[in-house]
Amino acid sequence: MSNSTKYVFVTGGVASSLGKGIISASLAKLLQARGYSATIQKLDPYINIDPGTLNPYEHGECFVTDDGAETDLDLGHYERFLNVPTSQANNVTTGKIYQSVIQKERRGEFLGKTVQVIPHITNEIKERIQILGKSGDYDIVITEIGGTVGDIESLPYVEAVRQMKWEFDDDCIVIHLTLVPYLAAAGELKTKPTQHSVKQLLELGVQPDILCCRTEHELALNLRRKIAKFCNVSMNAVIESRDASTIYDVPLLMQAEELDKIVLEKLNLSAKSTPDLAQWKEFLSRLKNPKSEVSIGLVGKYVELKDSYKSISESFIHAGAANEVKVNVKWIHSEEFTSSTSEEILSGLDGILVAPGFGSRGISGKIETVRFARENKVPFLGICLGMQCAVIEFARNVLGLKEAHTTEIVEDCKSPVIDIMSDQKEVSNKGGTMRLGAYDCRLITGSKVSKAYGTDKISERHRHRYEFNNAFLADFEAHGMKATGKNPETGLVEVVEIEDHPWFVGTQFHPEYKSTVANPHPLFVAFVKAVIDNKKVNSTLVK
Ligand code: GLN
Question: Whose CB among 64, 142, 193, 403 lies 3.0–4.6 Å from 414's, allowing a Cys bridge?
């Protein structure tokens, strides 16, 4: 079958967490830098329809796309590397596949047939893989299969890959990411797990074309030869993937290993030009040669698992590089402190970010953090729940509304400064029902945010059910907390700022979802800049 779009599958073996997402994003970056349009898709073998209902402790952050999909955090990496937005079609779960097949069965679309994993589930998977290919927007679609080969739950995906490889022939290749562990006692790298993992793929009918071998040490020629020989791949298709000091090094490491070249060769595509990575390298050089350091506290309730705030920490990396400063993020658990310990925990920070979140756990620590940042004039960014906490704190301690709260936590509170959105009142299903995705926002000219963006019209992504209660707005504004960004259609408050403060901004939207290497987010860049300025002022005061 001839097909204009080429498909690259990325599977994983031996162990989870080898970084399929980063390898996929790095390959896509190299192909993009050669002039090909590439996109990346993630197939997740779990039964949830999407990760929106998952606790961040399960799989880390839930990433949100412009079109309102709640997705795997790997999509964040794809966007940060490629600087191209992803969409609903870029993340598919087993739950979505089964939901769609069962709905078709109910509509009678299978014409009396018995509905089975093969062919119905595998056909649905193949269709989902090809949605992006058929859109005509991409030369190459890279599809990452979540989980590890051999898992029961990923079997239908591997079977779909086998079928596509058969049907699409040289328009389709498989990259298998494996681990070559180092045995310290023997002082050796071991290839047997890789051999077994490839054998497992072969048992399922899939011969990988390229092996990417994660390793802590150099993969010597004799080991490459051994892997090639026992896994039926050519020598130049055994790629070393060494641990990197930053994920942003990986495209260059893969370029040195010629991963992009061998992929193009196997797909019968011309190499076009050599990849233009000038901007990428410039970013890396700024990242690796900071002129100074700042420390920013990230206060949240999932800080034990750093993946829970992946987009925020990556945004700090982008904004740090843009400002030529190293941002040391201090992860602070919001449950850890009270008004008596906040001084001790928070003093010494050059800036403070209060993270998004849900529910009551850790909320008082977040509100206390806001008080500290406001009173001590520490640059502050509050995102989503972080912005809502800033509003609650201001109401309690400046407006004197001692019982101010969000109705998410105290439903019948006396001063509901944060309240459920009216169109959320009747919603009882939890999955996919929040206010999700990109909405326009109009900024007040001259505000800190409009200066940061350099424009008054922006669009940002959302994920929330509660909002600023406009019944209280006049009181807030009279006391110095201004709504400097609003949805132009509904008047929903998107941004609050405190005038009499070096830099105090709360956003109902999530700026972190849109920060990329090519376009560090303006709000993070401005926040880090304010943090640097604050540090300078403080150090002159101390002198
Ligand atoms: N829980 C809050 C709401 O639903 C904030 C959500 C968030 O921080 N993403 O409005």
Answer: 403
